[in-house]
## 1
Amino acid sequence: MTDSRLSPDTCATPADENRALSAAEARLRLLAEVSPITGHEFVPVRDALGRILAADIIAPHDVPAHDNSAMDGYAIRFDSLAAASETRLNVVGTAFAGNAFSGLVGKGQAVRIMTGAVLPAGADTVIVQEATRVEGNDVIVPPGQKCGQNTRRAGEDLARGAVALPAGKKVGPAELGLIASLGVVEVDVKRGLRVAFFSTGDELASLGNPLAPGQIYDSNRYTLHGLLTRLGADILDLGVVPDRPEALEATLAEAARMADAIITTGGVSVGEADFIKDVLDKLGEVRFWKLNIKPGRPMAFGKVGNAWLFGLPGNPVAVMVSYTQFALDALLRLSGLDPIPERPLLTVVSGNAIKKQPGRREYLRGEVTLVDGRWQVRTTGNQGSGVLRSMSEANCFVVLPEECAGVQAGEMVQVQMFEGLI
Ligand code: AMP
Ligand code: MG
């Protein structure tokens, strides 16, 4: 981590402290603020799955390494063929994948060739088997062929020395295969991002303990466990911290010593922020944001020691909204992912009416399904910011822009699918 101070832009000045930030503004500020961790390590190819490349992977040789056939058929010289009539060619051998034909293909000759076999010297074109007729030792080729057809040229996928995969790329199944095709055995990847998290609240009971009157089970740590594990972070669960300044201070200090990023839930709403503010002022530099969204209005962001702090709201669905819309992209940038992709918003028809006042951007839980051949979204029941069940029934957020004043059934709305997001 570089500078321990926030840029002036991230810090709301007293004059605009009460101004609500738009979702777009908040995301941009977060992305502008954090920079990738520098640590990296070499891992065997398979273990690179889900990791982020720390350096460009350069092709050490051409891919494919040699000119070869894209089809089963006959390798020939194009100048052997008559332009307007059939051509009879003498078959002089066979080229298999991994077992090349060592001779030369002369004018008037053909070599039977299999997909992936090296194109024999002299040949420049492959005629697919289905187009030909065999008569004894000859093959009859119809007119209408094109020079170079059905061949794959050396280096057409990747030329030797080219950047096969750039630093900052996340390794998925296609990248594993591509890396293997280059003969690369070990991959230079970013080290895992260390993320510590804890819940705050005197009302929270941990699993395994009975609920005292007024208590609820701490669910946020389980949700965050899921989100951060999916992210591929090295996670550190610091449990439940009661609403006491000393306890919060001790846990934050511990988290900051061990992690690149800290995620807290609860305690950032207006009524609760004050004692937390005092503690954070003492340990670092953290701003309390009011976001122009629903749910997930309050959020804290800044630094505690060398760790970035994301103070998410307490309500379980608000946690998922502020994590997916804000913290996630900042964590991805910290991890080294580059570029951070924009998340697609898809337009589908709304299957039901949705009430909304203009003003804030709203994230509703919805389920996109195929109805009579058309993709449609319906909101999934109770949209209270504490209601996880409707989150569990959903497969997307319905994202209603600030100015939207409600939706009629049958109108088009934008959705952000969960797949790939959580
Ligand atoms: P807070 O942001 O701390 O005011 O919390 C807002 C609401 O979320 C309250 O109803 C809390 O009880 C609830 N809440 C806070 N933290 C958790 C948690 N870890 N698990 C479940 N609910 C929580
Ligand atoms: Mg609380």
## 2
Amino acid sequence: MIYLKTDEEIELMYAANQLVGKTLAEVSKHIAPGVSTLQLDKIAEEFIRDNGAVPAFLGYGGYPNSICTSVNEQIVHGIPSSTSILKEGDEIAVDCGTVLNGFVGDSAYTFCVGEVSPEVRKLMKTTKESLYVGIQHALEGHRLGDISNAVQTYCESRGYSVVRELVGHGIGHVMHEEPEVPNYGRRGCGPLLRSGMCICIEPMINMGSKNVSFEKDGWTVRTKDRKCSAHYEHCIAIRPDGPQILSSFKFLEEVLGDKAI
Ligand code: MF3
Ligand code: CO
């Protein structure tokens, strides 16, 4: 069942997602060599609570923290830890969710730790661009596969691979609603896109092969070949006049300045 949201509900989704954007900005201020991923988690949790919201990830399916921190070969769902210390040249995907006024916000961004290699930077840039290419296809009357295919084609034509085991999702009162939003697929296939649909599009793109491994901690997903992976996520609403991005990278890009990807 795909729940279509009213304008009022989309307004509340917007508020929850804007707070995620501001939380990612707060976290981004502290991303530097020598910082632990658990420190970043604490900063995010405090910021979310100070703003009258609750971390959406904490306790979700038993997840132990407020953000996911996935470094280098980690794709998604990396668990923050005091022993995971960022070092110069790493890239770190930070995924964050909030619950505000009964609605969930969910967004992710991959950051550089100091200077990353040109190869990794290119992976990050392409992954981020593919997110916006996907969003451009989130049009009323089109099909979900149009979004999926656009992301896949954009990344594969640039020599990268698309993770299959993890997908984006519908979102609303809960973090994961129907439909699933794969980053691969066929044009003209899948559910019809309708005004009022709220979905998270979240390309997870690998430098090497698409194959993944699941770590023994029960959460962390990494590349099998241990090459780098990047992850960006926006929550969007499909509206009569086109897609509306409910989350925002504006706040973190203000912090990053000319260091933004
Ligand atoms: N953005 C991720 C997702 O859409 C975050 C979920 S992490 C979890 O699945 F721990 F909360 F599950
Ligand atoms: Co998500």
